[in-house]
Amino acid sequence: MRSSEPRVAFATSLRCSLGGGDGGVSELRKDLKDQLVLAPLTKGGNYAFRRLCTEFGAKVTVSEMAYARKVGKGDRKERTLFVRSENEGIFGAQIATNNCAEAVSACNYARENGAKFLDLNCGCPIREVTRRGLGSALMRKPPKLVALVERMVSECSLPVTVKIRTGLEEDADAEKVLELVRDLGRVGASAVTIHGRTAQQRYSGNANWDLISKVSAESGVDVIGNGDILTAYEAKDRLADSGCLAVMTGRGALIKPWLFSEFEKDYTWNPTPMERIGVYRTLVRFMKERFRDDEKGRLRSFEFLRFHMDFFSRYRYYPEEEYRERSREYPLIQQREKVDLGFRDADVSPIEVLLQRPVDTVNLDALIGILWDSRSDHEATRLFEEEALSLR
Known about the structure:
The chain has 392 residues and is an alpha/beta fold. It has helices spanning 5-18, 21-32, 47-55, 68-72, 76-79, 100-112, 127-130, 142-155, 174-186, 209-218, 232-242, 251-255, 259-265, 273-291, 295-312, 320-329, 350-356, 364-373, 377-390, and strands spanning 36-38, 60-62, 66-67, 90-96, 117-122, 160-165, 191-195, 223-226, 246-249.
């Protein structure tokens, strides 16, 4: 590829005048270093859930993916994805685009709403996204992707990061990923997040942390490693072993949003059923504050809460002394479904069984209604216990 030094130099000057620049990039690096980052999560990364994760200590959060074109055209629904809660610290806005002008327009709006960096999605494998030439489809033509990022770095008013996968097909090619990351860094990307699976894999199979580690070590670019992080000790081990600038969690946070507190304070929390219900009620409270506590707000919130309860039901306790070593060989998030729920164990309380049951085997809306209507954690727990006994 041709040299990009003049353009990158211009980019530095422009972003300095707009609040980005080398200062902005170095400041972002400082903010990201050694952090556990909340991944951009379609539907899951909503305002209320990000606020909940921040309450539990998340220092860096990223919005749901937004279509840059819609943001630039003033689409109200798309723009709400960039609304930052007051307690969020380092907030990144993720966009899907293959057009620099769209990216600049979306970036300006994101910056006005408190975003500290702009993230380009090059990893989403969903057909609705890739058929438009967005998401992981951008990885089909690396030179065009690199040229897009080069222009974004030149013209956007925030530091630009890029989120990619290990490839498109089943078998990842470490050398191709390494070359792409080097090129992205050369044209000014502040960091590259690597989800350790190909687009074809989606979320199946183990994340390829060997590849992530190789790219982190050999690219000369700041890499954020992403994939299969469910516990604080897994996050710390991946961070140390990979040499990444930071690590990122998605499904792990959806299952246990207190993961960020565990990471920050270096412990493993096994909340009681009442404590977990208290966490879920906090999310409900944030939903009410976001959408209002009326019939319309209830209907809107329930759409999100059904999604979240599905992930909450997957919570299992993995004590560090028992699981840390085995997690190095086989990530816990991939074996959680194999853990005996103890449905036939007399020592397991009915409410614990209820909380762990798949959501399609319970009256989910009734449980969400309890969380919504209860006046205290004690009341909600009592009603959950009654529901649990009715299922025995």
